[in-house]
Amino acid sequence: MERRNAWLSYTEEERKELFALSEDYKKFLSAAKTEREFVTESVKAAKKAGYQELGEVIRSGKKLSAGDRVYATWYGKTMAMFVIGTEPMAEGMNILGAHIDSPRLDLKQNPLYEDTDQALLDTHYYGGIKKYQWTAMPLALHGVIAKKDGTSVTVRIGEDPSDPVFMVSDLLPHLGAEQMKKKASEFIEGEDLNVLVGSEPLITGDETDEEKKDKEAVKANILRILEEQYGVEEEDFLSAEIEVVPAGPARDLGFDRSMVIGYGQDDRICAYTSLAAQLMVEHPKRTAVCLLVDKEEIGSVGATGAHSHFFENAVAEVMNCAGQYHSELDVRRAMSYSRMLSSDVSAAYDPNYSSVSEKKNCAYFGRGLVFNKYTGARGKSGSNDASAEYMALMRRIFDESNVAWQTAELGKVDAGGGGTIAYISANYGMNVIDSGIAILNMHAPWEAASKADIYEGRKGYLAFLLYD
Ligand code: MN
Ligand code: MN
Questions:
Q1: How far is the CA of 99 from the centre of ligand 1 (A)?
Q2: Which end of the chain is more exposed for a tag (fewer CB within 10 A), N or C?
Q3: Please, are residues 339 and 375 in contact by the beta-carbon 8 Å criterion?
């Protein structure tokens, strides 16, 4: 059961469309390097496409009807978008769900210190990373500093070519003999991921020689810059969320420019293609939904993760605005009769590491959207195992719409494993299957994907949203 390489079937027109989409994707991915930035960019795109903010709809008392577009966000880190269908929502929605958080280094709450004339920021990594991959490369700071007076400062340093960047140092090979004997998991320890941010001491001219020695002048100079340029003081780090991510934009990969290399493609590649598909939906029969969630990489927890009641509450509010909320039962029906694609990335076959894959059941670049009937580890543990009947429906939808697609597992049996948000939505009783785009070196600072798969992803997601 070989699946065809999608590149072989494209017309010149389709190739043009494919490359144009990946240009838009690279721009979006470069602008949206955190969950907050992804929501900000998605809200901009939604408003441009005529989406109304749910809170405003509620306050205005306006009634929603078929064809109306509405979105809701929560704490700026998760978002749900709806196009109201002609059929009652209680008969179920078509939902695309993707996560918009990615592995990274987060600044600790008390991060700034000086060690021997270097100023550094202490971090705690977020999600599953190979720590040694994050050293000796340009890094950027993204996030927000919330001040006691209720205002907040948006941080985005290291992306403009004129910006400074930051770095976690690594040991030179000349002195690395002991380090190189360690296991890769201990090679760089979590506490070694300290970001170098300065080395020039602050000199006011009034210090005595004794004072110059004592006062951590390099750190003082960093604090002076933070005060001058951002109006923040050291204590403000206590209420900040600053993410350290690879600096620089997503780019074309390969002589033939057939791939994209970029940070955070797990899972913003699926989030972006889901968003792009959602924005194309007009007048669906079943209400079309795009759900973007946070915190997947650490267990989908918290008020903005998939376990939160945010989405269910938003559905209740939307149904109420559409005159379709008569009792809680309507919401329960809407949730349980829904269909969902849990849009999350798959591991692409890697010729350098073929031993971890089972070739009949793994994902390949260029062969389209990947369906994972199940995920999990050690005997499918923790997996949402989609039903055979639902998988058959997927075959029908995607074959009818000429979408290139393939099926896969995450690696060989017992090679490892992973999870997604699929099982969480499935708790409502809805049909859910994992389907996403294959990427190389998942969770590395720079991940790679095939442009054909991005194109097939959006095509497939749109077909799913529009299916009756
Ligand atoms: Mn993921
Ligand atoms: Mn992941």
A1: 7
A2: N
A3: no
Neighbours of 2 (CB within 10 A): 8
Instruction: Give the number of other Cβ atoms within 10 Å of residue 355's Cβ.
Output: 9
- What is the average pLDDT across 68-78? 98
Non-local (6+) Cβ contacts of 415 within 8 A are 356
Report the alpha-carbon distance of residue 111 to residue 193 in Å, rounded: 11
Ligand nearest to the CA of 102: 2
- Tokens describing residue 204: 């006011």
Report the Cα–Cα distance between both ends of the chain, in Å, rounded: 28
Q: How remote is the CA of residue 119 from the centroid of ligand 2, in Å?
A: 31
HSE-CB of 349 using CA atoms within 13 angstroms: 17
Kindly report the average pLDDT of the chain as a whole number.
96
Question: How many CB atoms within 10 Å of residue 316?
Answer: 19
Q: Domains in the chain and their CATH numbers?
A: 6-102+263-466 (3.40.630.10), 104-246 (2.30.250.10)
Q: What is the DSSP letter of 258?
A: -
**DSSP, res 74:** E
Q: For residue 103, how far is its CA from the centre of ligand 2 (angstroms)?
A: 7
Can you tell me whether residue 341 is helix, strand or coil? strand
CB 459 within 8 A of CB 385: no
Q: DSSP 3-state assignment of 288?
A: strand
What are the tens digits of pLDDT across the range 392-413?
999 999 999 999 999 998 888 9
Whole-model pTM: value is 0.97
